[in-house]
């Protein structure tokens, strides 16, 4: 009988080494994230593996699963604890070793395995760990599956059996790299800074792009799980500014920045200016819809309004649907609608055939960006960016807010703006034109300026994004209006970055 996990255990005690600890808040909307040692211990990870294996059996899916781990000092030990739980639940485990997350998704197809469990903290700071899971390729778990998994694990409702097996796939990355490079090299000479923030992608991204004929300038591609310079997160300005400096110093055509587990790609143009991922999405949508007429795209609620208002996309018959932020939500919606691609402001891009297999892969995104540059003839990345209608938009800004409080606060913020709209009140000096409440609240004013507040799905934070098609001042007005509502809640703390 495996014991029920405890919510808290004191480290350096007998109990900590003898009982599982799993904090309930680690079960997020579409994956799992904990502070390792403080919110989950190795026995807790083992319980997670037992729970996942049990749930796969409940779902009627073949109990066979791909497992990999990212480059953190503790990820391998976490993976092996997870594997021990999966084996106890009767799963056959296919271990692909050190990997970027999309490599694990690729392995589901390449090895013909239905399930995946990738041990990764993604772009989170050191100390965090987590697991991205799925049982129906190319999709990953959503709220229903995560809720059921939470019930099984916290209730220790495991169904264990001795049928498990283990297979290590030696040098599996070579198969992933071969798949990505099974195409003609680029005819256009593209000089690219390839930045990995010392994260897992450094082991793979430079050689993939070099094989495709890209002139690669490596930046922080050496693996170092202490992340000595900055967190590998291409949404953070610190990483984007480091890429900018390298682009300018090396006269590169583009800067490509990969996050900690390689499923996202950030972009800096040839002038050193960062292009937020939603604008990159508009550029790609323009390029792809010129080839694929009447293309459909899915975009998340944090993204620019240009997907609907851009005259080029309108002329090319594009249909864009806004949807919930989060890689699992976006992946599923893109799959359900059979859209050509899905674009998320965080940099998760989901390409369906003929470009990809429906899952998010930073290298597939990088290749699509280079294809766009090749089709652009003599135009530079900055030319493609400057051809978009001008808008002023913020990076993703995240004030701290405890997991236990954030959803309630967002619900209050939604009610506040719904009431304001009903009463005809103004926001940032203008009437509300539209409210979207599919994921938090996106408030659009009469002039098209908008602001978003939602709860982060994977960290104890809120998420704030603002944009204006009118001026930088209107963008700042929207931020002040959204922040003023948040400041009525003392539980909302300081921002990680602000405009």
From TrEMBL:
InterPro entries hit by this protein: A-D-PHexomutase_a/b/a-I, A-D-PHexomutase_a/b/a-I/II/III, A-D-PHexomutase_a/b/a-II, A-D-PHexomutase_a/b/a-III, A-D-PHexomutase_C, A-D-PHexomutase_C_sf, Alpha-D-phosphohexomutase_SF
RNA-binding as UniProt keyword: no
One Pfam short name: PGM_PMM_I
Every Alpha-D-phosphohexomutase C-terminal domain range: 417-483
Top-level division of the source organism's lineage: Bacteria
Start and end residues of each Alpha-D-phosphohexomutase alpha/beta/alpha domain: 26-154, 187-272, 278-390
The keyword Metal-binding belongs to this UniProt entry's keyword annotation: yes
Cofactor entry: Mg(2+)
Keywords assigned: Isomerase, Magnesium, Metal-binding, Phosphoprotein
Family to which the UniProt record says this protein belongs: Belongs to the phosphohexose mutase family.
Name of this chain's protein: Phosphomannomutase/phosphoglucomutase
UniProt organism field: Afipia carboxydohydrogena
